Amino acid sequence: MGEVYRARDTTLNRDVALKVLPEAFASDPDRLARFEREAQVLASLNHPNIAAIYGVVEGPAATDVVSDLSRTLRALVLELVEGPTLADRIVSGPIPLDEALPIARQIADALDAAHEHGIIHRDLKPANVKVRSDGAVKVLDFGLAKALEPVAGAAHVSQSATITSPAMTRLGMVLGTAAYMSPEQARGHPAHKRGDVWAFGCVLYELLAGKRAFEGVEISDTMAAVLRAEPNWAAIPSQIPEPITTLLKRCLEKDHKRRLRDIGDARLELDDAERGGAPDPPSRSIGRTGRLAWIAAVAVLSFVVMAMAATLAVWATRATPAAAEVRLTIDTPGVSDPSDLASLAVSPDGLNVAFVAAQDGQPHVWVRPLDSVTSRPLPGTAGAYLPFWSADSRSVAFYADGSLKRIDLAGGLVRPLAKAIYGFGGAWNRDGTILLVQTPDSPILRTSADGAAPAPVTQLDVKQTSHAQPHFLPDGRHFLYFVQGNPEVRGVYLGELDGPATRKLFDADSAAVYTSGHVLFVRRARLFAQPFDVSRLEPSGAPFPIADDVSGSQLAGVSASAEGVLAFRTGSVSVERQFVWFDRSGKEIGTVGDADSEKLFPSASPDLAYVAFFGRVNGNVDIWVLETRRHVLSRFTDHVGVDLGPVWSRDGSRIAFFSARNGDSALYQKSTTGGGNEELLLQGQATPYDWSPGDNILLYEQNNDLWALPMRGPDRKPFSVMQTEFEEREGKFSPDGRWLAYVSNSSGPFEVYVQPFPGPGQKILISTHGGAQVRWREDGRELFYIALDGKLMAVPIDLSANGQSLTPGIPVVLFSTRVGHVIGPGASGPEYVVSADGQRFLMSTLARADRSGPIRVIVNWKPKP
Predict the structure, then answer these.
(1) Coil/strand/helix, residue 562
(2) Is the pLDDT of residue 174 over 70?
(3) Where are the alpha helices (DSSP H) in 234-280?
(4) Which residues are catalytic?
(5) Which domains does the chain have, with CATH numbers?
(6) CA 69 to CA 585: how far, in whole Å?
(7) Which of 243, 500, 706, 768 has an alpha carbon within 20 to 30 A of 290's alpha carbon?
(8) Could you tell me the sign of the dihedral formed by the alpha carbons of 346, 347, 352, 358, in that order?
């Protein structure tokens, strides 16, 4: 059908595939019509397993493409798909089952999407399928595709995959096609979607057997085998599960009336085989539309089981052209942080909801199939927040451990993609492009499903403080995102992958998502639907309310799919914390004070008689001091500004803290004896972490770097302790002041390190699988930290006699904590104090988390202004 070149799009700075109509057919009306039809077919399809079209070019031919400068060049600009074709892979023999099934499933997904758009491929074969290095499958070459409408009489030559033109035969274009044509196509009958089912069976057979199902020396021999012979079923390895061989035989029924009716059914059979579980008869028998009906049935089933029994029997035996709108509720396990409310994502196919909830005291990604009544946590997702789906609904990306990660549902493999200190939402399009946010004040960046180096796609203006929660529009190039800032700039914006221009669409309290011709967003806890014109990329009418009491503000718990399924969180989270003493085994040995809504950043006096922390009273954040023996609580600061992050000096006479007052941020200190006012130490947004022995230096973090402020002497000019491209924080001096323990994400996940202070010297890795919130034992012979899964770890430290060298031991688990998020938006900072002998730990534990609302789901949502 064409000559394909690798080309460079210099306007958008990307590599593309350029499919040029060969010179031999440039004046052939039939070939021109097929070429044009391929462009139109690809433009109508938007699926992660179908290679996309970017445009059509027509103009004078260039000398490096064709030699005849007098003719017009016609070319399709297509997605460049790297990787071998299936034909290249099969040359080496059969493909292992654990690789073959995911490949086959993605091919079935692509055909299913085409059939749903009324298009049949008619030329599916291994040479027209590519497999990228990340395992993503792309179906190519829709040059012979046609619409599904019936044609009276015999098929026209343009509707047959058998090309009989002498010129085409000389070029060899028919070779490799006959072996995949259905018997009815070989006879010249009108093509229909069961012809694609047959070709799919041929491809699946070849994947498993390593050779074609129908072979012959000449094309006529191959055609005869298609019409009369059976495949060699003995060539299928004996370890192939029986359901797969049964599926093959149903796909390769010569009588199309007995053949598998819908490629979507094949996809579901492969799903069952990949999961290794029992099939789901209602889902498999009625396809995608029927499955949404089954989801609706399960929702209603939870309310009226007996009444639905008869209805389900009817639905299982008839098609469902337009399922009714149905609402259901998902009650989730424990939610312990406001960021968990925004951690909600509907899969693009509308069949699953991902959310974050606690498992064993730690947040995990959970998945709830909508045709089930149970949810399951995904292993390897401890500490997760703000998940989002891949376009093919087969993988979930999420933030955890200072990174953006992905998990593939089929195999459970978790892979880091990019560093993200505090991620604020993401999106994943069908081309494998991923949008992410690395920090609250970073722009939106793009990476790939393989983890390419992130590059910015938005730019913060002076009045903007953050960009968050991107969401792709249907074209996969434009996206919505939320801008936080003053009222003039705050709202929902439109961005573009390959274009720097952005524009504000409307004001809102949250990010927005697109579904069914509408953009959904939150204002004052009310969910609105805004009609949206995707062709003009702008609102097209007045917004109207959908639901009330929707959780979240900037990070709103709202998600939707193009399949008309939307979900949102209601209510809010009320968290209570309690100071609890634990011994080294994790046994509770006492409490301090009462449970309250906020008890954060505890810092103890040297004798552990008092604990300072910050808490909120009547909407204002101040620092409080709690007497540990008598449980007496007193207010330490009372300014109308925000005071937080207290750090007690080594001699117990002062507390340093951060404060935001009158529009300015600064470090302050105040005496603990009750005399004197706060003393300004340093202007700027900074978080104090520790005092050096003798209280000569105050260690603090500013702009993700560690700094030191001299507290004595005439020169109190700050100096840099650690300034890199990564984040270093939570610094703690060793008891002798010679070493500095801290947390950094320089190697990917946050890890605990120690290095000499003030240096120079090599940094020493302390943690082994991530960690934060490091503490020293008073003699310097042991370090403690909290692992990213919430476990308290202890590391023996071997110090040389002169204190000049340090050797860490192997970290050991003491017990599982209940401090909540260790890293991420919900992380509340250092949450424990260690006794001098390292035998007791005072922790700010999660005592109770009340969630006032579940996840509400609307299936087959119908806009009702």
Answers:
(1) coil
(2) no
(3) 242-251, 263-275
(4) 123
(5) 1-80 (3.30.200.20), 83-279 (1.10.510.10), 326-571 (2.120.10.30), 574-851 (2.120.10.30)
(6) 83
(7) 243
(8) negative
